[in-house]
Amino acid sequence: MTSTLTSTAVVDFLGSEIVPNAQTAQVAILPIPFEATTSYRKGCENGPAALLEASHQLECYDDELEREVCFAVGIYTHPAIADTRSQDVSSEQMLQLTQQTVYDLASSGKFVIALGGEHSITAGVVAGYQQLSDEPFTVVQIDAHGDLRYEYEGTIHNHACVMRRVVEMGLPTVQVGIRSLCIEEANLIKEKQLPIFWARDIATQPDWIEKAIAAIPTKRVFLTIDLDGIDPSSMPGVGTPEPGGLSWYGLLGFLQRLFTTHTVIGCDVMELAPVADCVVSEFTAAKLTYKLIGYHALATGLLN
Ligand SMILES: [Mn+2]
Fold it and tell me: Where does Mn(2+) bind (predicted)?
């Protein structure tokens, strides 16, 4: 199954600026252009390719880290998997292939950054890390939405259900930037006392970052970023935009602290749905991906 659901129809992250080496690279970019359950604005299957193309416009030099990160870190771009642009892929196939590919890459020691595609993919990514180790980890989610519905529009694999699947896996969660949910989700949050950092509080409480960091119960963290967690004025290219949300520097401030205080075992950047004639979203998503690589490199000594 692996070969038929794998596609080479994406360009490498940063392109000609670096020479990717699959064996020695410490970071693996995993494009997953899968879209099946989008409920509002479609197009997230085009997200990974747009992000990767936009990454060619990035400066190698990171002004905050004061390094050309891409020359200190090997960044390998894996072929796209579960690509619904060119074939039919079921949610079950996508989840199985995602879990296996993440497991393979992570067990070879690579820090994996999965690029979506719809947020339901994250359940497969997280399952890959669960398969890899019995050590506990927390799933930290940046998102506008709770994504805690049991089922939506007839399937438990809907993007609006992905954090419910994560909760069912027995993993602790910390949700950041939330500003849209249904009463079923609100009741679940109260019943299970799930830690939530509401966007409305983030907007007015400067100490939210330290509170959110303190709410993470494990040393190890998997980070999932639904790009709609960011304010849509900075990130219009998403399927379900919500007013409010994180600012660019608010998000970076949180991520910088998270990578410093915790061991981030892997991450994903989900739900990029490009807008025609507006490259803000894909370029911002590409820069965010490069920041994640930089923070990981700093935390693991690769920039020394
Ligand atoms: Mn989401």
Answer: 119, 143, 145, 147, 226, 228
Whether 275 contacts 237, CB under 8 Å: yes
Q: How far is the CA of 226 from the centre of ligand 1 (A)?
A: 5
Q: Is residue 2 part of a domain?
A: no
Q: Which domain holds residue 119?
A: 19-300
Backbone CA torsion sign across 285, 290, 295, 299: positive
Distance 228 CA to ligand 1 centre (A): 7
Question: Mapping DSSP to helix (H, G, I), strand (E, B) and coil, where does residue 43 land?
Answer: coil
What does the pLDDT look like over 58-83, one tens digit per residue? 999 999 999 999 999 999 999 999 99
* Ligand 1 center from residue 229 Cα (angstroms): 8
Q: What is the pLDDT of residues 248-293, one digit of tens each?
A: 999 999 999 999 999 999 999 999 999 999 999 999 999 999 999 9
Distance, CA 160 to ligand 1 centroid (Å)? 6
**Cis status, amide bond into 117, omega within 30 of 0:** yes
5, part of any domain: no
What are residue 38's phi and psi, to 5 degrees? -55, 130
Count of structural domains, the chain:
1
CB contact set of 76 (below 8 Å; sequence gap of 6+): 20, 21, 22, 25, 27, 28, 29, 110
In a domain, 277, yes or no: yes
Ligand 1 center from residue 139 Cα (angstroms): 13
